Amino acid sequence: MTLRSDVAELLAGAGILDVDVDDAVADEHVRSSAYRRVVSVTASSRSRDLDRAMVATILRDPDAIVSKGAVVDLVDRIAMKASGPAEFRRWSAELLPEIDRLKAQGCRQFIRRRIHDWLFYLSVEDGHVPTPAELAKATDWMQRFLAEVSTSSVVLALVAESANTKKTRNIAKNRAGSRKLKAR
To answer: In the 8-state DSSP scheme, what is residue 62?
Structure first.
């Protein structure tokens, strides 16, 4: 398969007709935008049957940064829709063989870390109270996300005490004073 045929197939499969395939092939910015639109359409579908094939196609892109960005966007979107950690774990396990084919080790590790972060977050949302050691394994990005969105006073207290950055600790501390928090 060629980059041109991959881009054309992805756009057609998502029903996106207003992107010039030749422009997308020639310009990684146009292609990145096109991939994100494909991801948006795919993520909004109820069916997850085509996700692995789409990820495999995107990861064949010669620009690892472009493909990483699109796959991370998909991971984020699916995680936010997941009913819990078990559902997300099953879904992400289907993608791991494709992700492991990515030649750029740093991009491969970044995607795997994002999946780990979302599994951590979903388990916390499902009622798991993390330990400081578990929080330490989450990226600074996920720690800040927890500080910004968690409604659990226990979780916010942990983040306020143990997060890696002062800014994240302060966000959690300030939010912990909110009256709209759950005790768990």
So the answer is: S
